Records
---
Amino acid sequence: MTDRSDALVLFGGTGDLAQRKLYPALYELARAGRLPRRVVAVAASDWTLAELTARVEASIERFGGGVTDPAALSQVLEALDYVAGDYRDAATFDQLATALGDSERPLLYLAIPPSLFETVTAGLARASIAKRGRVVLEKPFGRDLASARELNRCVLEAFDEASVFRIDHFLGKDQVLDVLVFRLANSLLEPAWNRHHIASVQITMAESLDVEGRGAFYDEVGTLRDVVQNHLLQVLTLVAMEPPVDTSADALRDEKVKVLRAIPSLDPAQLVRGQYVGYRDEDGVTPDSEVETYVALTTTIESWRWAGVPFSIRAGKALAATATEGVVEFKRPPLQFFTRCDAPPPAPNRLRFQIKPGGEVGLQVQIKAPGGEMVSHPVELSYRYDDRVEGTREEAYARLLDDALDGDQRLFARADGVEEAWRVVAPVLDRAGAVHAYERGTWGPDQAERLLPEGGTWHVPEVGNDG
């Protein structure tokens, strides 16, 4: 199946995800002339089409940056239809089939809890909708390896893998994709992109905000499941993967899966968990909760290219700044060729990929310090996405929806990749040791320093606290 989908179905069409992300994405697709002619929302809510239309218009106004293209808004609203019904009732799927009319290739977006995936995919199969459609699955893809395997099993009973799109909005960001493009489009990096020249890799995903009233949700998930198993392992694969043999989806995902397979399952000794002071007072959080709001870990990739290079990851809430950044640190020069013997050795070169808050790539190099002596000092050669570039970039969900409508799976996870990521974190999901308290506005518990090689420190992202 290679033709573009001619209809879009949103299960969970009255939910929060649809309101905050999906309807604004539809507006972006309409502005780009890429919206399918029919959009059907499906939900249990006993709404009318008029009520849904009002919700969609308000959603685009509030979460989509406002309506600047009335014609695009009209296109979205005219495409809308609504099916209300219980997902366990076969009649709901019969109504959906009627609403789809002569659509030949619907894209079916499951913005619903994973516990309902099997029920909905079975209903789609019974109504003969699955065999002609593609399906988008919203994360989380399970809670552990066993549930991920079960989820894949039930979905693949109704759809071929080529028709399954496991969405991770993080992979729709230009700044994330630039990690791979920067690597592979600049041949000067290739000779140094290995264990002989790279000393370490760090990936940080920090948020200055706390759980923001979502305590009940977060207390069921924690940082490891929320962002490490998916977002940050995906960034790691982009840093470490071999160049794919071509630009096809399978070639790209083959190389990412190879990286995940080469990561040993984590040992609890390789991980530090933290919890910000006051988390247990949040609404919905149990008074004695041991769920982490911070996690740091160090692992290795047991491949010829990366053997012996530590890869360190940290992520957390209520930290000193909001930033997502990867830092590749190269090995130091072998000798000190300076006239002052007491001069400090040059700092190692560092390549920095800042994904959030603004896209930036920076390479720290050494040049001669001003003055008469042969002493070096660091400077950074950098590129930051300017306002013009940012203003023309499609929002991540719109990009991924557009790709799914086209049947392009390059930015979507494959079943084996999802299962390998869960395999990596499986041993530490439920027995990861003590959770260490840390104060809001810090960089997490001090215990995380022990995970780094001797003399190593966590790189602090070069941004201020944005609150």
Note: The CA atoms of residues 323 and 356 lie 5 Å apart.
---
Amino acid sequence: MDRFLKLSFLGLFFSLCVGVVSCDPYSKPHEPHEQNTLLLTDKVGATISTVPAGGKQILLQLKSSSEWKLSLEGDSFVAFSPNEGGQGEFSLILTIAPNEGEERRAVLVARMQGKEGASARYTIVQQGKTSHGGSSLVGEENIQGDISLIELPRLSGKATDYFITHRVEGGKKVNYSLEYNVDAHHSRWVCFSFDAETKQINTGRSNAWGWDPQVPAEYEVYRNDFESRIFARGHLVASHDRVFSSEANMQTFYYTNMSPQRHSFNEGVWLQMEQVVQTWGRSLKQTDVLYVAKGGTIRPDQIESRRSNNKLVVPKYYWMALLKKTKKGWSAIGLLAEHSKPSKVTRLQNQALSIDQLEEFTGLDFFFNLPDEVENRVEALDPQTILTEWPGL
């Protein structure tokens, strides 16, 4: 990933200032509670947006405790208004022109005026109509998600894939994300995080089975597509992973989150892996975060020879990639299991491998939004040397 966009992502992650700003379509000058505060987000609190090649308008929200000005870094395909203001809350309109060329990006920078003024950045990535080359981030993929999330594997960029971030609480809270391949009728991966809010247990299993509203109905998968005598409708994001709200749990029952798993596997080693991850996620301290990516392999060389109901691919392997941020720093570990495994394994330690090894096996690029120096170090960690950091293996 090029340094230009990675730095934009890191600004989002390390600033921790992406709260949603409540504002009307007009500016509302008043004295903010915090001094030297400058926030620039969209309506769901994100600081990056993916825009289709045809162009788009985006409404941003800016909050400042002092006078501010806007400038644009990168390609000049974005118009914005207003470009300056004073203290208070403001709505900004971004107009993105149509793109006839390759993928392009720009960063809108807000700077507070004064010697020690704060700054805030909003990144725009626009898809292109021509060849994308090696610098493409989103390619021709159908983008309906937040590409800045730390738990995210790198996108495929394929027109057959839908990248989606499911949110709750009126869009204010990320629930989980996925990348769904319509040819395979199966997700390439799902990802989410456990934090102080999402690790909570406030509800139970909803059994709200249904199709994902963000994927066209022409690709819909039904209950009968899972041959019940052979396969369970196996959750990728487990129901019990998302019980911090009833809305969050209901979203785990979308069929885009299901995989045809043999019953013995679903109730055996996969359940063991799910439970140990849930234990790790719910044992976090208040400021800790556990980032989780999961999936079943859907590459042509890593699927079974037959499809469920001649429709859904059946993975040969299932995996989990875990990244933990605590006061002690970062740690990461992978888990990999064959679909043909017996109902249970004696020790999950035997399923553990480094993230580098898991990447080599699956062909996926995990946690690519991390700073390079952190990513390179934690993804090379040998699981056998860090078992005390992952109790229960």
Note: Residues 269-282 form the longest helix (14 residues).
---
Amino acid sequence: MKKNQKVAIIGGGICGLYLAWKLSKQGHDVSVFEKRKTIGKETCSGHFSKRILKFVPESKQLIQNRIDFVLVHFPKKTIKVKFSQKFFVMSHLDLDKLVASLAKRAGAKIFLNHEAQSLPRGFDKIIGCDGVFSFVRKSLGIKNPSFRLAIQGFVKEKCFENFVEVWPLINQGFIWRIPRGKEIEYGIIAKPQKANEYFNRFLKRNKLSLRKIRSALVPQGFSIPHHPTVTLCGDAAGITKPWSGGGVIWGLIAADILLKHFPNFFNYQRAMKKFFLSKIIFSKTITTLVYFLGFNMPWILPQNIKMESDFLL
């Protein structure tokens, strides 16, 4: 029988809150330390596969729209990509608040406005879920992952279309359009030094004026430390999809792997390598190939593609 642990989770984003909820339900003494004054991530498209209901069944109430496929607009060819599972559009901010309420109900303690200046003492285990510029990652001497910049804004126009549109950029970023029910979201993910330029050009060409414009860096890498009492999860570990930058589902899968092996962080690291490394390498390779063909030999790409919603295959 596993001994109950005293656990510190640094970062009150979706992965930290999910872990706090599940670990508390297992009987562990969990404290979440969040540097912001409120719970809830605002800069995120909230475009999640149906898997989100497996992790947080209560999130069904947050669905704003349902997405069946995406139209990928290369310069000389548009490809229709159909997903094996539906995608849902929901507010990431509301999802975080929902999971925070579940964590509190399970007994987790959440401390807001509490920025980590050092690794907390008096805990058996410390889990860094503190995002892109993770203090925990830095404390362990692990270098930063690579970053892309995501920018999003909104047009106040009702739209319940069941598809997303994306316009790939030649350097493997893309611009997107997501119908959110009560509004339409436009955004871009690209190299930080080029994202603003590309996005402004697109908006001007399409005569779009956006409101509520926000931005955030998106990490990409694999940073799971070999440490007995401190580990990383979610964006802090760079666990995001190479092709889209989406991190919620991959982060929650990583959280479930951690929960399965908790409190053994060495086993968690080994399981993460086994599950994610091949998928990261494969998806990077496929993404590079598709971009090359789309811009140079579009006739080779099929008109219609079916893909697994979170893992390409």
Note: The first strand starts at residue 6 and ends at 10.
